[in-house]
Amino acid sequence: MSFYGEGIPGVELSELTGRLIVIEGADGSGRSTQIEILRDYLENKGHATVNVGLRRSTLVSEELKEAKEGNILGEITRSLFYATDFADQLENRIIPALRAGFIVLADRYIYTLMTRDIVRGADREWVRSLYGIALVPDLVIYLKVSPPQLVERNLRKNSTLDYWESGMDLGLSRDSFDSFIRYQRMIQKEFALLEGQYGFITINGNLSVRAVAREISARMVNIFGE
Question: What confidence tens digit (pLDDT) does each residue in 164-182 have?
């Protein structure tokens, strides 16, 4: 296991005997469902698992939630809020779990945070250095779903489109539907670039839940040999 950059001081990488598996994708891509399926699959094979995700830090999660609800976050403030949330979870949840030999299942990781920042105009090198503390996962799977399908799934689940997931803060369109489509296309374009840079696997998230789960479980053979 290794860090993308300088990492966190004092961490002995040889002690991290667990595995880090990441499922990426937009809201409505089926990430949470696939995380649950994968968790059951791994636990049935005798592996202990821990779940992590964005905005779950006990340090800043509530403050970040409140700030997002006000739709008033500036770009740099938003970036640093999420980076703090990630760093806290990395140090206090992910690394201890890996040290204990657990499989950490991450419902999104630094890649979503990076793409969000970049499409909002953040400098690529600044973003890369910001997340140089991150551990390199054993496997990253990106569930790519067409923007129109994402709209349908989000409306079916929530009856509305999220302000931030629609990119309404970017002024792309006054219409939330149109803004959502444009924003998600921008995000997917950045993910395509990151795929080449970070070597993760893209799976067609438009497929059925079972079909996606089969593709993910097939990747487990390369990691666990089972």
Answer: 889 888 889 899 999 999 9
Judged by DSSP in three states, 225 sits in coil
* Count of alpha carbons within 13 angstroms of residue 84, beta-carbon side: 13
Amino acid identity at 104: V
Radius of gyration of the chain measured on its C-alpha atoms: 17
pLDDT band at 31 (very low <50, low <70, confident <90, very high): very high
CB 203 within 8 A of CB 38: no
Name every residue whose Cβ is closer than 8 Å to that of residue 100 and which is 6 or more positions away in sequence. Answer: 18, 48
CA 56, distance to chain mean position in Å, is 12
Strand partners, 103: 19, 49
The CA distance from 212 to 110, in Å, is 22
Question: Looking at the whole model, is its pTM more than 0.70?
Answer: yes
Q: For domain 2-224, give the fold.
A: Rossmann fold (3.40.50)
Boundaries of every domain in the chain: 2-224
Look at residue 17 in the predicted model and tell me its pLDDT: 95
Q: State how beta strands 103-107 and 19-24 pair.
A: parallel
List strands edge to edge, sheet with 103-107.
Answer: 49-53, 103-107, 19-24, 139-144, 201-204
